Inverse folding.
C-alpha cells in the first residue's frame, strides 16, 4: 500500500455528487450493504434524505498525484426527537480501495466526532453487520462498544447476518 498524505476532511458539496456516487458503487460489498448492488441507470447520490450537509468527505492525493475524494462519512441526528438531539448516528462510511489502510476512515471518524461535539452532541451511535470484522475493529479502536445485537436480522448472500449496534460517548 503506497503511503498517502494526511486526508483533508471537509463538508460535502453538491458538486461532489458524481464522485461520491462512483465511490459508493465501487465500494459496494455484501460485507456492509443490505441493499442490492446498484444497477444503471444510477440515481443521484444526493436526494431529499441524503443531503450534502450530512456528509464529510476526505480528499487525498491518489497514486497518480491527483487530489480526489478517497472516502466519506454520513452522520445524521439519530431521530427527529428533541429528547434525542444529543445523539448523532453514522449512517455510512466508505473508503476507496486505493486509499484503504492509510488512515482515511479514522480521519473521517475523528472529524465527525469533532463536528458532532461542535453541534452539541455528546453521543455517537452506528449499526454494523456482524460479519464486518474490519469495520468493527476500527470502530472499537475509536472507542465504540457493542450495545446490542439483533441476531439474524438480515438474510444476505444465502445466510443470516447479525445487526450490531455500537455507541460511544463524545466526552473528551
Amino acid at each position: 500500500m503506497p503511503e498517502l498524505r494526511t486526508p483533508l476532511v471537509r463538508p460535502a458539496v453538491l458538486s461532489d455528487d458524481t464522485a461520491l456516487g462512483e465511490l459508493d458503487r465501487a465500494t459496494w460489498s455484501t460485507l456492509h450493504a443490505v441493499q442490492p448492488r446498484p444497477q444503471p441507470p444510477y440515481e443521484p447520490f444526493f436526494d431529499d434524505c441524503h443531503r450534502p450537509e450530512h456528509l464529510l468527505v476526505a480528499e487525498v492525493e491518489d497514486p497518480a498525484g491527483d487530489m480526489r475524494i478517497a472516502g466519506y462519512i454520513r452522520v445524521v441526528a439519530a431521530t427527529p426527537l428533541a429528547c434525542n438531539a444529543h445523539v448523532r448516528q453514522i449512517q455510512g462510511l466508505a473508503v476507496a480501495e486505493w486509499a484503504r489502510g492509510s488512515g482515511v476512515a479514522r480521519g473521517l471518524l475523528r472529524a465527525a466526532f469533532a463536528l458532532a461535539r461542535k453541534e452539541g452532541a455528546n453521543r455517537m451511535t452506528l449499526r454494523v453487520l456482524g460479519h464486518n470484522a474490519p469495520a468493527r475493529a476500527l470502530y472499537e479502536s475509536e472507542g465504540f462498544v457493542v450495545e446490542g445485537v439483533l441476531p439474524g436480522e438480515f438474510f444476505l448472500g444465502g445466510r443470516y447476518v447479525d445487526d450490531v449496534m455500537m455507541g460511544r460517548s463524545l466526552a473528551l
